[in-house]
C-alpha cells in the first residue's frame, strides 16, 4: 500500500497546508507576520487553463497566431519571363536589313519585313513595361531600328529603279529595242515578193540589194510601202535583157496610168513616190518576169491605204 496522499477529487479532504512563516510554538491562527495571504495548497499558483485569454488583451490573439493578418505582403517575382515580341522584332529586323540591301529583292522584302519588325518592336516595348515579363527593351529597340533601315533601303531601291528607268528611256536604248523587236516581228511575217497583190502593204526590207521576201503588215498600221499594181515583163527571148532596160521598163509602167488610176491623180502632181520590184538575172533564169509597183511617202510612213486619196 502506497504512502502517497490521494489525488484531489478522490473524496478525501486535502491535508492541511503548512504554516508558511509561522514561528515555532506561536499561538497565532497561522497568519503570516507580513499580513499576506497564505499560498494555495501545493506551494505555487495553478497555471492558467488552455484557451483562457491573457489579461489585458481584450480577447485579441497575439501576433503570429493562425488567422492573424500578416503585416507584410509577398513581392512578385522580378523578371524571368520571355518577351517574344521583342525577340521576333530583332529577328525580323535583321532579315529586313539583309533583304533591303539585296537588289530588286529589297523592293519587297525590305519594305514588308521592315513594317513587320516595326510593329513587333512597338509591341515588345509595351510588353517590356509589364510586370513578370523579361524586359527585352534593347531587343525591341534594335528591331525597330533595323526595321526602319530595311524600309529605307527598300524605298531607296524603288527611287533608284525609277531614276534608272527614266535615264534608260532617255538614252534611246528603248527605241532601238523597239525597232529590233519590230524587225524580228517583220521577219516572222515576211512575205515572198511573188505572193504580193494589189493593195498589200509592207515595210522596207533590211537588205535592199536582192529582195526575195518583204515584211508584210496590214495597211491600217504604219507602213513604208503600198502595192498599187503588178505587171509582167514582156517575155521576148530567153536571155536577160539587162538591169537598166528592166528598171526603165518598170519605171515607165508604174509612173503612168497605173499610178493615176490607183491614187486618183497624176504621178507628177502627187506627193507620193514610186518604187519597183523587178526580176534580177538570177530570178530571170528561174522564170521570173514579175514587176511590182509600190508607192511611198518620202516624209515618213503611211497609215491607211492611199487608194483614191488624190494626193
Structure, explained:
The chain is an alpha+beta fold and 311 residues long. The protein is 37% helix and 12% strand. Among the domains are: 87 residues, no CATH class; 114 residues, no CATH class. It has a 6-stranded antiparallel β-sheet. It has a two-stranded antiparallel ribbon with strand order 4-8. The radius of gyration is 61 Å and the shape is rod-shaped.
List keywords for this structure.
311 residues, alpha+beta, two-stranded antiparallel sheet, 12% strand
List the helices and strands and how they pair.
Layout: H1 84-101, H2 105-128, H3 137-170, H4 173-188, E1 190-192, E2 201-202, E3 213-217, E4 222-223, E5 225-232, H5 243-254, H6 257-263, E6 272-277, H7 281-285, E7 290-297, E8 302-303
Antiparallel strand pairs: 1-3, 2-3, 2-5, 4-8, 5-7, 6-7
Helix pairs in contact: 1-2, 1-3, 2-3
